[in-house]
## 1
Amino acid sequence: MPRPAAPPTTAIDPPSDVQRDPRPVVVMRRLLTPIVSFVQTEAKGGLLLLTATVIALIWANSSWGDGYRHLLHTPIRIDIGGRGLQLPLEGWINDGLMAIFFFVVGLEIKREVLAGELASPRQAALPIAGAIGGVVVPALLYALINRGSDTLHGWGIPMATDIAFALGILALLGRRVPLWLMVFLTALAIVDDLLAVLVIAAFYTDAIDWTWLAIAGGLMAVLVGLNLRDSRSPTAYLLVGGLLWYAMLRSGIHATIAGVLLGMSIPASPRKDRRRFVDDVQHALDRFKRGHSPGPHPVNRDQAAALHQIVRAVNDVDSPLHRIENSLHPWVSYAIMPVFALANAGVELPLDRVVDALVAPAGVGVVVGLVLGKPLGIAAASWLAVRLGIADLPTGARWTHLIGAAILGGVGFTMSLFVTGLAFDDPANVAVAKIAILAASTVAAVTGLLFLHRVLPRAGAES
């Protein structure tokens, strides 16, 4: 998770009745810090994503549009030890930088399954059900609209939710947004990403080179071995992960899958348990206090040793998964995803082309899938899970609020653009899908924002 920052103006601040007792306030802040930090980073990342999208659209439709397209197709070659790999700039972004994005996705999935909202089967049931419904229904609607067409292969385009944009929109509503709604939407999007990864691996792979796939399997076995040996060296994991990425790229399976597999292999358990951590830090603090002398003197040797002991204790209690995710998540949100948007959102938008795209089968399938299929699938599957007793609606939650989150699930921007590049080879189909994604995500964002603005209680009012 990203490092804690100042709490945003959302409903995840401790309620006023808790603030009367300082102890519950401390406990509440500790419990909410990870989700607060995650929401802040994703919301700000969503703003940068939107800015990059606007820049890409202006650039592609300006007199410099040819330069934009030429830049993306510029070949770049990297040679290491006599072996080289050449990809266009767009390929390095989509296959290379996005592998880091999927690496963080893998870390997030593992964390949520082991210690987050997906750790308890009962707690995880609602977002899992919603995510499954939000994947199946849009895909079916797209397939029905495009049956018998050469664009049927794009059925995976409308099935993903862009968590950065979705949480960014929720952040616009400030303190009116209940915590459970943000947690639900975050967990749903993480499960959504996992399902998208499985779909990409299973259905968007053309020809498989079994030799390179076997090499990738061997490298994955090395990562598992490092995990079982409790290796804590990020360098070792990243080195093997880089080789795994190359093997996946050569095998024919999309290279970004290597990022998810690498994320799953990173150790999530601390080397030192929390009780021993507290004892060691207390011992170091006592040692530091004993060496204290009045006045503005620099720390002495004993105090320096105590500080080093505290640093070692912190490193031992903080898992490699948490440290790596903490450091990479801002880079992904603030750099990699905006760069991806800049490279992929630049589509020419003459009026006649937009109209043609939105009435083409692929365009209609994407719009219907995202704007109608996503909210229908998420809300219906969630309702069915609660009705069957598989899941519980969070305390104080209202179905109208969940429906609002389901509408925001139709903002499929990043992953939808990514799947578009895998689904279609024909530039005309790619352009149609991109126009439809931009239109549908805009409609879903505005509709979800207006709907939640109407149904959420006013700030300070009873929910």
## 2
Amino acid sequence: MNRIRALREDRDLNQEAVAKVIKTTQQQYSKIETGKADISGEKLKLLAIFYNVSADYILGLTDTPRKLK
């Protein structure tokens, strides 16, 4: 999931900081980011809220990072 890595790096965050936001470990977040593990719906929702983008954007279904209302 290169998109979640890009979102994280654009905000100068490390994996540990984002892992805390989605209530997981840095190691598990790294696996999600590299595609070695799937992301749950709840964690996807937390990422979308944190980054203020749609889940569709994170998943690569759209290239428009629509802001959440």
